[in-house]
C-alpha cells in the first residue's frame, strides 16, 4: 500500500467536513501490479481516476451526492491513485472545486491533468472555447479553481473535428507558451487524429494523448500504435463505454460476464484489464461516482488475462481502425 507521506495531513483534509473516518480507509488493492508509466515529467500509476462523473447528471452541476463525491476522491488518493483527470468545464467548475475541497493541499506526487477548449452555457450546452486566448484563459481558470500554480499536463481537446492546419498550429502554440511560462508541465492532445499528432510532435513534446478507446470502440488503434512507438502516454477516455442511459456494449456483454466468471472478475474489471494488457503506455482513468465502483476498478490492476481470454476478446470485439 502507498506511503501517504503525511497521513495526518490527508486525514485532516479528508475528514474535515461531515465525512466519517472510514473515508480514509484505502481500498484493498495492489495498484503496483499494473505498474507505472511516464506522463511527461511525472511518474504515475497506470490506474488513475477520471473525475468527470462527479459533476452531476450530464456533467453539469450540482453533483448527485456531494459528500460521496468527496469520499470517492479521498478514497482514490488514499488507495494510491496519483493521476486524476479533470476539466474546468465539468460542472462547470464543480469537479475542480470538489478536487480542491477533498485533496488540497495536494500530495506532492499527485498529477492533476486537465483539458481546455470547451465551456458550458447556462443551460449546460458544451460550446467551443478554443481560440488561442480562450485556451490560455481556460488554463488559468483551471489553476484558480484547483488552487494550483502549475498543472501536471493540459490536453488541448479538439472540438470541431477539423484537420490539422494553421488553426491547430495556433492552438498548440498557445499551450507551448503556457508551458514555457511554467503554467503547465506537459502538453496533451485529445480527440485527435494521427495526423494531428504527427504535426504536433514537429512543434513540441507531447506527453499524452487522450482519445475515446475501449473494447467496443477501437477506432483510435493507429493513434495508440503511434503513441506506443513514441513512448507517449495514451489515456483512453470512456474505458467502460460510459453507459449513460443506453445499452452498454461492454458492461452488458455476455462474453465479458462469462470470461469474468472464469477469471473471478466483473465485466468492468475485464474491460479495464484488457486495456492494461494491451500496451504499457496506456494509463486508465475510469470514472465513477461511487466508492464501490472505485474499489472494483482499482482491483482490476491485479487481474491477468491469459491467451485464451485475449483470443476470446479479440473475436468478440474486433479492431476497426478509423477509415
Ligand atoms: N477528453 C475527453 O473528451 C473526455 C471525454 C469523456 C471523458 N473523459 C475523461 O475520461 C474519464 C473516464 O470516462 P467516463 O467517466 O466518461 O466513462 P467510463 O469510465 O467509461 O464510464 C463511467 C461510467 O461507468 C460507470 N462505472 C464505473 N465503474 C463501474 C463499474 N465497476 N461497474 C459498472 N459501472 C461502472 C459509472 O457509473 P457510476 O458512477 O455509477 O460508477 C459511469 O456511469 C472521465 O471521467 C473524464 O475524466 C475525457
Question: Which architecture does the CATH hierarchy give at level 2?
Answer: Alpha-Beta Barrel
Gap between N and C termini? 44 Å
What name is given to the CATH topology? TIM Barrel
Unreliable spans = 1-5, 16-23
Name every ligand kind in the structure.
Answer: NADP nicotinamide-adenine-dinucleotide phosphate
The CATH H-level homologous superfamily? NADP-dependent oxidoreductase domain
Q: Tally of extended strands?
A: 11
CATH level-1 class: Alpha Beta
Contiguous helical run count: 11
What's the gist of this structure?
By secondary structure, the protein is an alpha/beta fold. The protein contains eleven helices and eleven strands.
Describe this structure in words.
The protein is an alpha/beta fold and about 325 residues long. It has one domain (about 45-245, about 255-315): Alpha-Beta Barrel (TIM Barrel), CATH 3.20.20. The chain is about 35% helix and about 10% strand. The protein has 11 helices and 11 strands. The protein has helices spanning about 5-15, 65-80, 95-105, 130-145, 165-180, 195-205, 220-230, 255-265, 265-280, 290-300, 305-315, and strands spanning about 35-40, 40-45, 50, 85, 110-115, 120, 125-130, 155, 185-190, 210, 235. The strands form 3 sheets. A 7-stranded parallel sheet has the order 3-4-5-8-9-10-11. Strand 6 and strand 7 (about 125-130) form a beta hairpin. Helix 2 packs across helix 3. The longest helix has 15 residues, at about 130-145.
Amino acid at each position: 500500500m502507498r506511503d501517504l507521506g503525511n497521513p495526518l495531513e490527508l486525514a485532516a483534509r479528508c475528514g474535515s467536513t461531515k465525512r466519517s473516518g472510514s473515508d480514509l480507509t484505502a481500498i484493498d488493492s495492489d495498484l503496483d501490479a499494473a505498474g507505472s508509466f511516464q506522463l511527461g515529467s511525472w511518474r504515475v500509476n497506470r490506474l488513475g481516476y477520471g473525475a468527470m462523473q462527479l459533476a452531476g447528471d450530464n456533467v453539469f452541476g450540482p453533483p448527485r451526492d456531494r459528500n460521496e463525491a468527496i469520499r470517492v476522491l479521498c478514497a482514490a488518493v488514499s488507495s494510491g491513485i496519483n493521476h486524476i483527470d479533470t476539466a474546468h468545464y465539468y460542472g462547470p467548475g464543480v469537479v475542480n472545486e470538489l478536487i480542491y475541497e477533498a485533496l488540497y493541499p495536494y500530495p506532492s506526487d499527485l498529477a492533476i491533468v486537465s483539458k481546455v477548449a470547451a465551456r458550458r452555457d447556462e443551460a449546460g450546452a458544451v460550446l467551443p472555447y478554443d481560440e488561442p486566448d480562450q485556451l490560455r484563459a481556460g488554463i488559468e481558470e483551471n489553476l484558480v479553481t484547483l488552487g494550483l500554480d502549475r498543472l501536471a499536463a493540459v490536453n488541448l481537446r479538439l472540438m470541431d473535428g477539423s484537420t490539422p492546419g494553421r488553426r491547430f498550429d495556433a492552438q498548440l502554440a498557445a499551450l507551448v507558451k503556457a508551458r514555457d511560462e511554467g503554467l503547465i508541465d506537459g502538453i496533451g492532445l485529445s480527440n485527435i487524429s494521427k495526423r494531428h499528432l504527427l504535426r504536433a510532435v514537429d512543434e513540441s513534446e507531447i506527453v499524452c494523448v487522450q482519445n475515446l478507446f475501449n473494447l467496443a470502440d477501437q477506432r483510435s488503434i493507429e493513434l495508440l500504435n503511434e503513441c506506443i512507438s513514441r513512448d507517449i502516454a495514451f489515456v483512453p477516455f470512456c474505458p467502460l463505454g460510459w453507459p449513460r442511459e443506453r445499452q452498454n456494449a461492454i458492461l452488458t456483454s455476455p462474453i465479458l460476464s462469462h470470461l469474468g466468471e472464469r477469471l473471478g472478475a466483473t465485466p468492468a474489471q475485464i474491460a479495464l484489464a484488457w486495456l492494461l494488457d494491451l500496451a504499457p503506455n496506456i494509463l486508465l482513468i475510469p470514472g465513477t461516482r461511487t466508492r464501490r465502483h472505485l474499489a472494483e476498478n482499482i482491483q482490476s490492476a491485479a487481474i491477468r488475462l491469459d491467451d485464451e481470454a485475449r483470443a476470446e476478446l479479440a473475436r468478440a470485439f474486433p479492431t476497426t481502425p478509423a477509415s
